[in-house]
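Cross-check.
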Amino acid sequence: MAVAQAPRISLAGSGALLLDGAQASFDEATQELVWAVANAARALEGVRETVPGMNNLLVLFDPLAMDALRLGERLKSLWACTDVQAIAGTQHTISVKYGGARGEDLAGWAAHCKLSLEETVNRHAAATYTVAAIGAMPGFPYLSGLDPRLAWPRRNSPRVKVAEGAVIIGGAQAGIMPMTAPSGWHIIGHTDARLFDAQAQSPILLRPGDKIRFQIAGIET
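Predicted model, tokenized:
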């Protein structure tokens, strides 16, 4: 059975509860418990949807069908007792062109890390990333597994337009832009992989638990 410290639970409007399981920094075991509780909670009376985040879980419910306090107690019970099953996520290899006009922060990133461009890119591509959560915009993956040496705090002033396919770094997380949108993350490269297609039968390419390896298609200074 899962053993974990009780999560902090707070109201998120009249029809949602937020479970925060993070103790300090991101933890893979806690994230796996988030996925398991998200699946189990969908069967609870009054629950409309569950949305896993980074070590947290948003549970949307019908306040006419379920009292928030009673639901909170049931969620605490699930958190304490739910078995964590390994998710057999899909393996993805995503080709990336680093630097150049579509990876404009590469040099600054390497300087921040006090590494050469080549070592910075090689470290980024050497890791295996896990899709911890999908959020912020349709298909956007929050990726855990970034080499701690490569972490870089987000920009003080977000860009108003970051292109679809941008490979990005934000704090201790990696990501890929599924569409053109504002972002405060740093742009280190670009991929032609399509993460979101509204017309496709399965619009979103990546799912929580999927694994990603980045393949170096080139490095431009």
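The chain has a mean pLDDT of 92. The CA atoms of residues 105 and 187 lie 5 Å apart. Passed to J.P. for a second look.
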